[in-house]
Each structure stands twice: as C-alpha cells, then as structure tokens.
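Schema walkthrough. Field components (list of strings):
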Amino acid sequence: MYIREGVLLALNQIRAQKLKSFFAVVGVIIGVMFLITVVSVVEGMNRYMEEDFAKTIFGLNTLTVARRPEINFSSDPDQWRAYARRPRIRFQDADAIRAGLSMPALVAVESYNDGTLVSDNGIEVSNVWLTGASVDLFRIRELEIERGRVFSAPEDRAGMPVVVLGFDAAEQLFGALDPIGRGVRINQQPFRVIGVLKKQGSLFGMSMDNRAIAPARSPMGRMVNPQGVVDRVLVKPRADGVLEQAHSDVEAVMRARHQLRPGEDNDFAIETAESSMSFWIRIKKILLIAFPGLVSIALVVGGIVIMNIMLVSVTERTREIGIRKALGARRRDIHVQVLVESATLSLVGAGIGIGIGIVGGQLVRALSPLPATISPFWILMSVLLGAGVGVIAGLYPATRAARLDPVVALRAE
Amino acid sequence: MSDTIIRTQNLRKDYQLGAETVRALRGIDLEIERNEYVAIMGPSGSGKSTFMNLIGCLDTPTEGEYWLNGTAVAGLDDDQLARIRNREIGFVFQTFNLLPRATAMHNVELPLIYGGVAPKERTQRAEAMLDRVGLGDRKAHRPSELSGGQRQRVAIARALINNPAILLADEPTGNLDSQTGADIMSLVDELHGQGQTILLVTHEHDIAEHAHRVVTLRDGVISADVRNGEHRPAGARLNPSPV
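Field assembly_structure (string):
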C-alpha cells in the first residue's frame, strides 16, 4: 500500500525536478548502459561463434586434419618453427584416411589462396578467395548451388579446369549475364564456369561470396599449394555420434603415415568445431569478469549519488515525516517508504540505461562487423541491479528518516 | 472500558540544554473523563507544548505515569507509541500539517493506511468523513487549492478518521481569521456534542471559553483547573456560513 505510494511519490519527484533527478541517476544510467552494451556484444559474439563461425570454419560433425591448428594465438616462435618443420598434408593422406576409416564418411581436401579473376568480357576482380577442393567439399561445407552444377567426380579426378563461383564473384564478373559456360581466367589460367553458389553472407565483415572453387588437381591446385600438397583434409561421417571413432581412425592413419612411434606427439592437428570453441570460451570468460567489474564501479558511484540525493530529500521533508509519524507511521513504514522511493529512482535510471544500452548494442551491430544480441536474462539482471543499488543507497537515508523524533520533525520548517 | 480517557500521575519532563537541565514539567496530575471538553491554557514557557507532546504520545515522560484510554503509555517504545497515536489520538495543528502534494482524500486516508485498513474501506470512510466536515466537493483538491478553513477541516477529518479516544487540537484557530476560526470552533463544538472527547490547547480566552473546563499551566505545574459555569451550546452565537 505505501509501496505504491512511495513509487508515486518518487515519480512525482522525478517529474517535478527532472534535471536533479537525472543527475541523481546518471551513474546508474551509465553503469547499466555499459553493462547492456557490452553484454549484448559478448552475447552476440557468442551466438555468432557457436552458430556461424565454428560451423563455417570447421563444419558441424566434421574433423579437420591439418599441419597445425586453424586457430592459434600462440606467439611463441619455437612453437611456430615446430609447426613449420611438420610434414605437409598431401593428397595421399586423404586417400589413406578414406581407406582407413571404419565408417562411411565424406572425405575432401581443401586449400585456400587469394587470386585475380578476369572474365572473358574483360572484367577483372581481385582478392578472390580461391579454393582447390575435391567434390565432396560441397556436401561437407553445405555449399548450395544457385545455378549450374558442382564439378563431377570424373572432372575432380582428372583435374578439369572447371570452376564454381561465389555469388558476388559471379555478379561482379558477369553482371546480369548468365555466367554458366562462360570463360574466366584465374591467375592467367583459363577455366570454364559450371556453377554459382547461393549467397552466404559475411563473416566478421569478410564476404563469403567473393570466391572461386575448382578441383584440387586442376591448375587451381598449383595456385593454392605446391604440387600434391593440400591445406587440410575434411572428414564428415555420414552418421551422427561417431566423430570420436572417426577421430581415432584418422589419428591412427596419420600416425602410421608419419611413422610416429608410441609416445611421440602428433605432428598434425585434428580439430572439430567444438574444440575450436575453447579459445573463444576463454575470451568470453575474461570479458564477462572484467566488464562487470567496471560496471560495478559506475554503479557504486551511482549509488553514492543517489544516497546523497535521498539524504537531501529526506531532510527537505523532515516535517512531512513528522506528520506521518504523528498519524501513526512506525519506523518501518518510514523506512520502507524511503527505500521504495530510492529504488524507484534507481530503477528509472536502470530503465533509461537499458534503453540506451540496447540502442548502443544495435549501433555497434550496425557500425561494426561485431554482432549484438541481448537476452532477457541480462535485462532482468540490470533491473535487479538497479533496484539493488537503489535499496542499498536508500538504507542510510531511510534509517535517518525513520529515527527522526516526531516532536522535532513536526517543528521543522 | 473505563470512562477515564486520560490520567496522568506526577508527570515530569526534563530537557538537557547544554549543561543545564530544563524542568519543563514538574509533576502534573490530571484526569479527563470521556466526552469532556477541556482547554489547556498558559503563557509560553509554561510547559503547555511539552504537556501536549506527552498527551499526544509524541514524546515520553522523564518520570511519572500516563494512562490513555486504559493503556499505560510511559514505558512504550517508538512503534507502540506510533500505534497508539494511530488508534487513539486525532491531531489538529495550528499549521494544519497536511501533506502538500497529497489530495484532501489522501491526507484523510493516511491514518487508515498506517492502520492497515483495506483500500476499499479506506476510500469509503475517508469520503464519509470529508462529507461530514462539509468538504464533499473538495476531495480531489490539494492543500494549496484550499482555503485555510478548508485545510483545517481536512485536518479535522483526518484526526477523526480512526475514531480516536481524544481529539487533540493545538491552537486550531491560530492561523485563521476570526470568522473562519469561529466556524472551525463551532465544528469542534459540534463534534463534542456528538460525544467526542476534546483537549484544546490555546492561549486565547475566547477560544478556551468553548471548553467546559479550563486547565491552566504555569512553570510546569497546574495552577488552576476551573469548570466553566455557563457554557454556550454549539452554534448558538454564530451564524454558520460556508467556509
């Protein structure tokens, strides 16, 4: 009952003294705003990492075999020298893996490089993402065809100069024209366009559609790697839940091929989408510990300001408190009233902070490649934080008000 | 229930003023019966205000006993005193002491809020009480939108809302012009006529004349306790006019 009264009183106060109230809650606004913005970005990154990034780099339910880990933040030069001494991954490794697997699986090789494409009508596109691949790559990476077709198994084996273009690459090279059957020179080598991929979008601001995929044994193979060498072998079991088994099969095959003795470390890397997440989880942990620390400093400052404003407000209303006491308000009633008022003030600040924070998160999303999403959990958290700061900041003023001597308070001007 | 509403025994109150002890009340023995109409008089410094605060349970005595409507008040703590003030005492102040931001209705409802009365009953009782003091058409007005007399009527409605054992009016006409003051006094007389026990604190003799009994304080003791021989019935000498 006087909770409602306290809320209304606080809202009246805010309406009557907009500027003073704004300054009272500016600390809470800033704290909550930062919290929401940062958490939006971290959460957005997280969802992105889990749903898009890992899947794009490694594919779901897929093993990647490479000379060294795909994502590595080691700055140790010895580590890098050790990676450089490792044997390269070769076509024959892929064949051996295919033969050594104990379950049906898709196996493909893949190598990347950048290059320049020139269409047969003279349009040049540079910095195209070139991929030398085997045909199963399209199924492992779930690359879908917009028009035309992927290359056939015979074209793959024979290394025919055929190419599947990414959506953007095709559009830039041929515009509105049908690219299928047209000629394109890739780093001076002639290829024939047989297909165009569906639009993929972008990852961290990089277009996934400015690309060209050709058989690994075609002339493309030598543009992306030395003869016979590939960046990585991808293995995707046809059934779910056998990735562990596939992992040990592949490891056994590779160790045998590299003639490693028992006890010797692997001189290759086998990775999955899940294992690549570990580095992100580490970053996320740091972010989620460090930023709330900064936020809490803002909230402490905000709380102190609110406490001061409430002390002034309580002093200004000494007589009112005296009247309430004369009419039968107990200490607890006055206490609750001041706390409710303080919490309301702080909650209004938190509300404004949440609003600005959401807008901030959306701005980050719009102006940078970082994604941003906000979960109801963090909004609820902010509301609770706001209320908590208000209640804690109100404790001292509330106690002062509750302890006022009614005789003295009634005499106050 | 006893018919004695107020009984004090050797009531003393000392204040510490620096190194000096001010003995504001030096032993007051007073009994007030139900439906009495008593005025407390005395010059400033007589201990009138201190006595008022003790009777109103706003303060506790240094020494002595005080029974209000059968309850020994002297030993009670803050919250118990708040409860007594809420149930047993209706305050009417010289300066009205209404909450400036609250409507007349809300001001009258306040004691019911602190008494834990349900909202629906609260509204009904507050409306009825405002009607009774003649402010049925001013319920949604704030104090700043009311005249002095109307404000004091709101204060009286608020004082009566919990059917207190005693109505404690401290200079109720002190901030009003004489005509409005007379109207307020005739309302007080009327309440007395309806059975309300009234304790009036004043230094004006013509206000004190409304009471049936005048208790005079001087230097912290009762110097006179006189029953008015002739009492003019409520409204007899006034032309009641709308405030």
